[in-house]
Amino acid sequence: VNIILLGPPGAGKGTQAKRLVDERNMVQLSTGDMLREARSSGTEMGKKVAEVMDKGGLVTDEIVIGLIEEKITGNAGGGFIFDGFPRTLKQADALGALLEKTGQSLDAVIEMQVDDAALVARITGRFTCGGCGAVYHDVTKPTKVAGTCDVCGSTQMVRRADDNEDSLKHRLMEYYKKTSPLIGYYYARGKLASVDGLAEMEAVAAAVAKVLDKK
Ligand code: AP5
Ligand code: ZN
């Protein structure tokens, strides 16, 4: 099955995507991760991307559609999880066309519902493992041994440059202006399923599993 995880910054898209990779052998396609990789390459494109991301704006549709196009023809394992893509109506149309061209379909769009107040705490407490990308939180998901990754043992923990309150406000504004119309877009196509993203991680995972098992 191919799914989209849709929701504002901090809704828990990355957290749930990583679980689906482990439990169902699905392939996570996170445009945020791809763009962070591009920026660390130090190319001219990477530098432009970094500037936009740090302020919390959206990178151009052409760039992200290009990144997805490169990956979508590869092995899908148990299916693709589109995480943080599409984010605009143009990206949604492009994804539809790419899937059709490659003989694939979109099975569900899972909207993770949260409220804005909770997002600030989620984003400002987040850190990730520099070794394997595991996602943690100061309060809701600390590492077992302080400063050491539970998964790979790395002691290199990183915080994202855009995980501050100013940038988050801009990211939220972009979400409401440009991404939230996708809820209606996919509802009208009979693809939308909503889960309570404010619940505990396990409960969210169970709700996501229920949607997938119906497909
Ligand atoms: P991206 O990397 O996609 O970031 P985002 O959408 O802002 O989402 P986040 O990664 O912040 O949140 P998440 O929902 O994955 O939450 P997580 O699971 O980590 O994009 C970054 C930037 O790249 C954009 O601003 C833009 O510039 C650019 N970009 C990317 N894609 C683009 C596109 N398609 N077009 C244009 N530009 C694009 O969880 C957050 C925290 O909460 C963690 O600490 C976690 O441990 C904790 N947590 C998770 N679930 C729970 C729970 N149920 N209970 C308690 N805590 C929880
Ligand atoms: Zn790790």
TrEMBL record:
Record EC number: 2.7.4.3
Top-level taxon: Bacteria
Annotated binding of Zn(2+), by residue: C129, C132, C149, C152
Domain Adenylate kinase active site lid: from-to ranges: 126-162
Region annotation NMP: where it falls in the sequence: 30-59
Catalytic activity: AMP + ATP = 2 ADP
Cell compartment(s), UniProt: Cytoplasm
Function, in words: Catalyzes the reversible transfer of the terminal phosphate group between ATP and AMP. Plays an important role in cellular energy homeostasis and in adenine nucleotide metabolism.
Protein name per its UniProtKB record: Adenylate kinase
Record organism: Gemmobacter lanyuensis
